[in-house]
Design goal:
four-stranded antiparallel sheet; alpha+beta; single chain; 197 residues
């Protein structure tokens, strides 16, 4: 909460922080705390934790649960078409109306209380083998394209690193420029991956 407040305070004099489209960010934090790994996820980012008891996948999909009718309408049209642009505008307005509101979705923007709605937890440190943090664009091989599962992603990261994961995401995005095989509102999205053993 303190970090969100500090950033907002730096911009309060020059920005309209109450505007629904004020800049925002997703957040994923991992912290070693003596005998546990603590995690926090806020927004459409995924944390994958490989433990001795199996995988724990922490994903905040609340934004996907908003503006469903508008999203389905936008998915009917090819990327770049006038119909797609109009539908995306309606979808974005519906999403923004649900942003940082109860029953909607939460991201780090100007209101520090959003941090209270983060998904949090802890896992015993001695059970953890490896972890990965993926933005929604990097998670597309599983979450959108359904071409891999989370264990496959961890193996890919282990064998070839984040650069190869993102290269594959970009290759599948490029193979579907109309966004009709894999319905989406952007040809490509931010793609960041962090992997730690």
């Amino acid at each position: 909460m303190t970090s969100i407040q500090a950033v907002a305070d730096q911009h309060r004099a020059t920005c309209d922080l109450l505007h629904p489209g004020t800049p925002s960010a997703v957040v994923a934090l991992l912290r070693l705390n003596e005998t546990v790994l603590e995690y926090l996820v806020l927004g459409d980012v995924t944390v994958i934790i490989d433990t001795a008891d199996g995988l724990q996948v922490v994903a905040d999909d609340r934004v996907d649960r908003t503006a469903r009718a508008e999203r389905e309408e936008a998915d009917r049209y090819p990327f770049g078409s006038a119909e797609k642009q109009a539908a995306l505008l309606r979808m974005k307005h519906a999403e923004l109306a649900a942003r940082n509101t109860p029953g909607g979705y939460w991201v780090a923007a100007a209101d520090p209380t959003a941090a209270r709605y983060a998904i949090t937890g802890k896992i015993p440190l001695d059970t953890i083998r490896r972890v990965a943090v993926l933005t929604d664009g990097a998670a597309r091989l599983v979450a959108l394209f359904k071409l891999m599962d989370w264990p496959d992603v961890l193996e890919l990261l282990d064998q070839h690193g984040p650069t190869e994961l993102i290269r594959r995401v970009r290759a599948f995005e490029a193979a579907d420029p109309s966004c009709m095989r894999w319905a989406r509102n952007k040809r490509s999205d931010d793609a960041t991956a962090v992997y730690a053993v």
